[in-house]
Write a structure and sequence with these properties.
The chain is mainly β. The chain has a 5-stranded antiparallel beta sheet. Strands 6-7-8-9 form a 4-stranded antiparallel beta sheet, with no helix packed on it. It is globular, with a radius of gyration of 19 Å.
Length: 372
């Protein structure tokens, strides 16, 4: 029966946009009902519209998980979800690990993974596109499967216009359902035509990677750096041919409790790193900057020092703020939080501006495990 149903994960998800259904406290989508939530993403359009996404549903990470998407003009009030992305066969399939990304054309891309059960060895990266994310009622294209694996971290666009997507088939988990030994790496997919087509071009195999969750950035000389979640912190590799081959796999020295981090090139040209610093677990989420393409890091703003804060994602907004979203206590307090800071805040290690703020609640759920 399992082998007969495993390809249900290849069917497209559906969208639920009925506001009454999404907010019904007796249904599975409302704040009052959700039993856990986490793994958020964030983006902001040039017009100043904010989007946030995370996944939830069921008692834990399992078949039936779905995404919730939020939209707001005010980062202090995301209100209620505007859309849920629902798995095609919820008794067998889950939607999870979402990612939001504004591409060079200004379109909002929503990516997520689908799997038969918790982890089927193949998964799949799905993509939906909103051409006008500033519209009152945003409309997304039908879901399209673009890759094997999982991609929860944003793509990059090189100075030559190539899109590079960090998709992975994790080293940590194997499955008899689908065995893809030639793809079980920190992979790189490429698009040369602005997202019309995608192709797998290369990978890194850092020895201590587990749940890879890798990210890529481009250096000033055009070479690429890949940072990789690993059992010993964060691994790294380099590419000098546009991501086709990767070499020099080694520990980056950045540290971390084997958890998702975020590295992004800012509009100023600096690199931003959000990672756990001087940690005793998933705590001390801290933002730092680099003016040397990651050779050294300066500043250090503590975003949240509490336990069980994790999985940061970042975007810059037209008001000049750096927006850092993350989750806290996925099963207990069930909070999705936002920090809005500036580069000066990070360099000074404290909030220096009137707009800067920490621990803004994006979403908080109140369901109790055992209610389902």
């Amino acid at each position: 029966m399992i082998m007969e149903n495993k390809d249900l994960s290849l069917l497209p998800a559906s969208y639920l946009t009925d506001g009454a259904a999404l907010s019904d406290p007796a249904g599975p989508y409302a704040d009052e009902s959700r039993l856990f939530q986490g793994i958020p993403g964030i983006e902001c359009t040039k017009g100043g519209t904010y989007y946030a996404v995370f996944y939830t549903g069921m008692k834990t990470e399992e078949a039936g998980n779905f995404l919730l998407l939020y939209k707001s003009r005010d980062p202090h009030d995301f209100g209620k979800a505007i859309m849920a992305v629902l798995p095609p066969a919820p008794e067998f399939v889950r939607c999870y690990d979402p990612c939001l990304w504004i591409d060079p054309s200004g379109r909002l891309n929503l990516f997520w993974a689908q799997s038969y059960g918790l982890y089927d060895g193949r998964m799949g990266v799905w993509r939906a596109v909103c051409d006008d994310p500033d519209a009152d009622m945003p409309v997304f294209s039908p879901p399209k499967r673009i890759a094997n694996g999982i991609m929860m971290n944003k793509p990059i666009v090189t100075r030559g216009g190539t899109w590079l997507l960090p998709c992975s088939i994790w080293k940590s988990s194997d499955s008899e359902l689908n065995r893809l030994p030639d793809e079980r790496y920190s992979n790189v997919y490429r698009s040369l035509d602005g997202g019309s087509t995608f192709e797998l071009i290369g990978h890194s195999d850092y020895p201590n990677r587990l749940i890879d969750e890798h990210m890529i950035y481009e250096r000033g000389d055009g070479s690429l750096v890949m940072l990789i979640r690993a059992s010993d912190g964060i691994g790294m590799a380099e590419s000098y041919d546009g991501g086709v081959t990767w070499r020099g796999e080694r520990n980056s020295g950045l540290g971390g409790p084997c958890s998702r981090f975020c590295v992004r090139r800012l509009k100023s040209g600096r690199l931003l790193l959000v990672n756990h610093y001087r940690f005793t677990g998933r705590n001390n989420l801290t933002a730092m900057l680099s003016e040397e393409d990651g050779k050294s890091w300066i500043g250090g703003l503590l975003i949240d020092g509490r336990q069980n804060v994790s999985y940061p994602d970042v975007c810059e907004s037209p008001d000049g703020m750096i927006n850092i979203i993350y989750d806290r206590e996925r099963y207990k307090d069930k909070e999705i939080l936002l920090a809005r800071v500036t580069e000066d805040d990070i360099l000074e290690g404290r909030l220096t501006g009137g707009k800067s703020e920490l621990s803004i609640i994006v979403s908080k759920a109140y369901g109790r495990n055992g209610d389902l």
